[in-house]
């Protein structure tokens, strides 16, 4: 692993933080480009992104604290986020809620924005997970497989590769069907595809927290898939017998 990229005296620059920032910039830039292409960029975009990032950070931390309370010796430890402790599904939830509130406030087409934002979200996740790998933050089960790194499955690399596999296909479908399918479908499909891959990859993860036969992260994957499926049925019901509608 390579947790520290470089140092300036006693100041360490950590690979996880750098890759997270790069992922955030790359994802936000892609959303910006696509929003301009779709001609829907009519508000302060930086304000929108900052709101999502802040809420995503808070959501990731809050869910971690709620899921793993035994890892905190006292109340103040909760605020020492630089020691690690984030849940990606909490980050998704926080970011999505913030995006919905902001877009609603700005009178935007919420589902259209969600459809284009799923691509930036997944790009950021794919790059950020490489940072997790370099930091040794999420480790896999021990194995003698040729796909191992230091005798363990590189589960976060597998997650990034899964995103790299399905995201171009989803974008291709988006370009082909964006004017035919109801808005919100692509956002929901992105969550389903991510949750599906994450669920099976996490069988290779070395995890100490289980509820029955499944780890907490796998339960998060299943909940993500379930919510996305419910969204699809709801969207199709609303748009039943109608041309594609604008929803905001």
**Protein structure class:** mainly alpha
Number of helices: 7
Strand content: 5-15%
The helix fraction, in percent, is: 55-70%
Major beta sheet, strand line-up: 1-2
Largest sheet: 2 strands, antiparallel
Please count the beta strands (DSSP E, at least 2 residues each): 4
Unreliable stretches covering 5 or more consecutive residues? none
Mean pLDDT: 89
Order of helices and strands: EEHHHHHHEEH
Radius of gyration: 19 Å
Question: What general outline do the C-alpha atoms trace?
Answer: globular
General description of the model:
- This protein is mainly α and 248 residues long.
- The chain is built from seven helices and four strands.
- A two-stranded antiparallel ribbon has the order 1-2. A two-stranded antiparallel ribbon has the order 3-4.
- Strand 1 and strand 2 form a beta hairpin.
- The chain is globular, with a radius of gyration of 19 Å.
Short note summarizing the structure:
The protein is mainly alpha-helical. The protein has helices spanning 15-37, 45-67, 88-105, 110-135, 155-177, 185-201, 216-238; strands at residues 4-8, 11-14, 210-211, 214-215. Helices cover 62% and strands 5% of the residues.
Helix and strand arrangement:
Elements: E1 4-8, E2 11-14, H1 15-37, H2 45-67, H3 88-105, H4 110-135, H5 155-177, H6 185-201, E3 210-211, E4 214-215, H7 216-238
Antiparallel strand pairs: 1-2, 3-4
């Amino acid at each position: 692993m390579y947790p520290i990229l470089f140092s300036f005296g006693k100041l360490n620059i950590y690979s996880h933080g750098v890759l997270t920032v790069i992922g955030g910039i790359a994802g936000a830039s892609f959303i910006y480009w696509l929003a301009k292409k779709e001609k829907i960029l009519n508000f302060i975009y930086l304000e929108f992104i900052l709101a999502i990032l802040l809420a995503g950070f808070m959501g990731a931390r809050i869910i971690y604290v709620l899921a793993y309370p035994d890892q905190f010796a006292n109340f103040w430890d909760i605020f020492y986020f630089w020691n690690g402790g984030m849940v990606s599904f909490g980050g998704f939830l926080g970011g999505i809620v913030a995006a919905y509130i902001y877009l609603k406030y700005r009178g935007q087409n919420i589902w259209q924005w969600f459809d284009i934002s799923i691509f930036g979200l997944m790009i950021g996740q794919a790059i950020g997970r490489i940072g997790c790998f370099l930091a040794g933050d999420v480790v896999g089960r021990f194995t003698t497989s040729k796909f191992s790194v230091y005798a363990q499955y590189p589960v976060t690399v597998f997650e990034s590769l899964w995103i790299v596999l399905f995201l171009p296909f989803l974008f291709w479908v988006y370009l082909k069907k964006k004017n035919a399918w109801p808005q919100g479908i692509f956002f929901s499909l992105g969550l389903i595809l991510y949750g599906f891959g994450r669920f099976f990859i996490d069988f290779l993860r070395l995890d100490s927290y289980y509820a029955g036969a499944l780890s907490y992260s796998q339960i998060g994957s299943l909940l993500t898939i379930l919510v996305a499926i419910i969204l699809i049925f709801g969207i199709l019901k609303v748009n039943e017998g109608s041309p594609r509608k604008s929803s905001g």
